[in-house]
Design goal:
Layout (H helix, E strand, L loop, with lengths): L10 E2 L13 E6 L3 H15 E4 L5 E3 L2 E7 L5 H5 L7 E6 H6 L3 E4 L6 E5 L12 H15 L3 E2 L5
Parallel strand pairs: 1-3
Antiparallel strand pairs: 2-5, 2-6, 3-4, 5-8, 6-9, 7-8
Length: about 150
C-alpha cells in the first residue's frame, strides 16, 4: 500500500488571510541532524493529512514544512526553546525562500507559524513521489545554507 492509499479524505488546513510577509523576515526550521530526511518526513505526514485551497478554488495537497517567523522582538534562542529535542535548525529569509521557488503559506492560529509548500499545485489524484520530495527538501536545505546548532537542544 502506498503512503496515499486508504487514507480517506484529507482535511483542509487553516490558512490565515493576511498580507504577505516582508522578504527580510527570517524563518526558523528546527530539524534533526539529517535535515533533508527530517523535512521529507514532515512533508509526507502533512501530505497525508492536509490540503489547501488554491487560487482557482480547487484543492491541492499540502506538502507543508513548518517554520516560524523570527520577529525583531525575540531571539532565535527564545524561539528554539520550544524545540529542545531538535539538535539543529535552519534559518532562511522569506525573500530567499520565494526566490527559490517555494510558496509560504500562513497556517494555523499562531501568527508566527507558516508552512513552506515543498511541491505546489499537486492534486489529490497526483501525489508526489518520495524522490520528488527528496529533491525539493534538498533544494530547501541548500537555500537555507549550513545547519546551525540549536542552543536549546537537550
Amino acid at each position: 500500500m502506498s503512503a496515499h492509499e486508504g487514507l480517506g479524505r484529507r482535511k483542509a488546513r487553516l490558512v490565515r488571510d493576511e498580507a504577505p510577509v516582508d522578504a527580510d523576515v527570517v524563518l526558523i526550521r528546527a530539524v534533526a541532524a539529517d535535515a533533508v530526511e527530517s523535512i521529507i518526513d514532515d512533508a509526507s505526514t502533512s501530505s497525508r493529512r492536509y490540503v489547501i485551497e488554491n487560487e482557482q478554488g480547487g484543492r491541492e495537497i499540502l506538502y507543508g514544512v513548518s517554520v516560524f517567523a523570527l520577529r525583531p522582538d525575540r531571539s532565535a534562542g527564545e524561539l528554539l526553546a520550544r524545540f529542545d529535542t531538535a539538535p539543529m535548525y535552519l534559518p532562511i529569509s522569506v525573500g530567499a525562500l520565494l526566490e527559490g521557488g517555494f510558496a509560504l503559506v500562513p497556517t494555523g492560529s499562531n501568527p508566527d507559524h507558516f508552512d513552506v509548500q515543498l511541491l505546489s499545485a499537486r492534486s489529490e489524484d497526483a501525489p508526489a513521489s518520495r524522490s520528488e520530495l527528496a529533491e525539493a527538501a534538498a533544494r530547501l536545505v541548500a537555500l537555507a545554507g549550513p545547519l546551525r546548532p540549536n542552543p536549546a537542544y537537550t
